[in-house]
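User: two proteins, same treatment. go.

Assistant:
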Amino acid sequence: MRVQEHAKLSMAAAFAILPWLKKDVWIPLAASLLIDVDHYLWHAVTHRTLSLRAAIKYFGQADPPQRRAARLLHQPLVLVTLFFIAIRTRSRVLLLILAGLLFHVSLDVVHATQMKSLKRSLNERANRTCPECGQACETLQLHTVYVSANPLNRYAARNFVVLCPTCHEQAHQQRN
C-alpha cells in the first residue's frame, strides 16, 4: 500500500476516534504512520547509505523483494511483546502505540490479500501471457496503471495489468 493511502486511512481513523481519545489521538496516528521507518532503517543498514532517495527508489521498483527483515516492526512477535509490556506496565501510551501499529499492519494484510487475489485473477484472464510483448510467462507481475483517489476503488481490476518482469520494469522506468 502506498504511503499516501496509509496516511489518508490513518487520518480518517484518527478523526473517527477523536471523540474518545481527544488530545491523545496523535499517539496511534503517529505510530500508524511511523511504523514504516523499519523499511528505511533496513535499507540504510543493508545498503550502507542514509539516502532516503535511494530507499524510495529501492522500494518503488517494479517488484521489490519482500524481506521480513525490512518489516521488523510489522512482525507478530514484536507486536505481541509490545502488548505484554503495555499490559504489564499498565501503560496507556504503549497501548495507544500498539493500536496504531495494529491498524497499519491490518491495512497491510488487507492490501496483500487483495493484491494476491487481483494478480491471480488477472493472470488467469491473460492466460499467463504478457499483454505487452506476447511472451508466455508463469510469473506475470501486477502493475498499477491507475491509482484511484477513492480508497474504495483501489482494488478494481481496471486499475491494474499483469506484465512479464521485463515489461514491468520498462513500465516503471518510463514512469520515472
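Protein 2:
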Amino acid sequence: MRGPILAICLFIIAWRILAQLPGTSTQNGSGAPSGSCVSGSTYTDSSTGYAWSCKASVWVLGATSGMMSGTTVSIGGGALLAGACASGTATVTGAVVGMPAIATPSDGTNIPALGTSISATVTATNTVTVNVCALLALTPSAKTYSVRVLP
C-alpha cells in the first residue's frame, strides 16, 4: 500500500513544481494586467492584442507591439510665470509607467525658440502627462501635442 501512496505524493509534488515554473502560466483578458504575477508568465490583452510578460513579479509590455502614440488635449493659452508649467494628458493605449515618452507640438512649432520646454511622462497605465514649461514669463499658444511611447 505504501508504493501507490508514495507514487501519488511524488506526482502531486512534481505537479506543484511544474505549475510554478516560469512560462507555464498564461492568461488572457481585456485591458492591461494588474497585480502580482509569477515570473515567466504571459498575458494577452484581447482588446489590443498586446502581449505582456512577467519579469521579477511585474507585468511588462512585450517589445512586439512597437511604438505607441496619442494626442493631448489642448495645452496652453494662459499666462505663465518663469518656471511655471501648463499640463495636459494623452491616452496612449499600452503605455505603462516607466516607459520612455516624448511629445512634440502637433503643428510643428519650434517650442524651445519660443522660450518653453516640453516634457512627457507616462504617469499611469495608458496615460501620458505632457508639461509645457515657461523658461521666461510668457503665454504659450494653446495647441495639442503628439505623444509617442516606446515599449
